[in-house]
Structures are given as structure tokens and as C-alpha cells.
Write a structure and sequence with these properties.
The protein is mainly alpha-helical. It is 72% helix and 0% strand. One of its GO terms (biological process) is transcription antitermination.
């Protein structure tokens, strides 16, 4: 059975593809999660996260940009942006412990993103969390 971390990792992959212009991926989310063996409660969890980010992406991006120091969203790599979008969504819309969300994002950044990403994300997500 898949873990929540694996479900989040799959969501990041889907958000990454979406960010690169593959908006049609929305039609295939069920199949992609099934292929990755994300099933049952974890599939519901992943679908909720993916759909939540997509449905709130403008507000999420505005929140991210509001905490960037003179940067713009396009300066952030697609993997990093996908992790941030997921974490900001969870902080703002889900009833989960904020420290767990931030830690999960940092761990996923260590695994999937560039070397400086975990520190960058920690700082940005800490600012988002303090506002909520």
C-alpha cells in the first residue's frame, strides 16, 4: 500500500507535467495514479491534493509570489514550483499539522529538486505558515 509521501510524490509529478504545458494530463490522473500503485485512501488523498492545487492555482501562485524577494514565479524551477504549490495548498486548505506539511515538502525537495531548494522552500513555507 502506498504512503502519503508516495501519493504526494505522484501529485508533484502530475503538477510538474501540468506546469510544462500538459494541461490534458487532468484527464489521465486516475490512470497515472493506478499505474503508480496509488490506490484506495491514498488515491483519494492524491486526487484531492491534485484537484485542489489545480482549482486554486492562481491564489496559490499569488501567495508564493508575495513571499519571493524580488523574484518572479517563472524564476522557480518546475519541480520546485510543483512542490511549493502542493505545500502551499496543504497549508492553506487542508487540516494537517503545518510542521508536517513543511517537513514533507523539504524532504521531497531533497529527493526531487535542486540542491538549494530545501533551504529556499523552508524559508518561503515558513512565511506562508505564519500568515495562516
Amino acid at each position: 500500500m502506498a504512503t502519503r509521501t508516495q501519493a504526494r510524490e505522484s501529485v508533484i509529478g502530475l503538477l510538474y507535467a501540468y506546469d510544462l504545458g500538459n494541461e490534458g494530463i487532468v484527464k489521465y490522473v486516475d490512470e497515472i495514479l493506478e499505474d503508480k500503485k496509488i490506490r484506495n485512501k491514498q488515491k483519494e488523498f492524491a486526487l484531492n491534493l491534485f484537484n485542489g492545487v489545480i482549482n486554486n492555482i492562481v491564489k496559490i501562485d499569488e501567495e508564493i509570489v508575495s513571499h519571493l524577494n524580488q523574484g518572479i514565479l517563472s524564476d522557480i524551477g518546475s519541480v520546485e514550483k510543483s512542490i511549493l504549490r502542493l505545500a502551499v495548498y496543504e497549508i492553506q486548505y487542508e487540516e494537517l499539522e503545518k510542521a508536517i506539511i513543511i517537513n514533507e515538502a523539504i524532504e521531497l525537495a531533497k529527493k526531487l529538486a535542486s540542491d538549494g531548494a530545501p533551504k529556499f522552500m523552508n524559508g518561503l513555507l515558513d512565511k506562508v505558515e505564519k500568515i495562516k
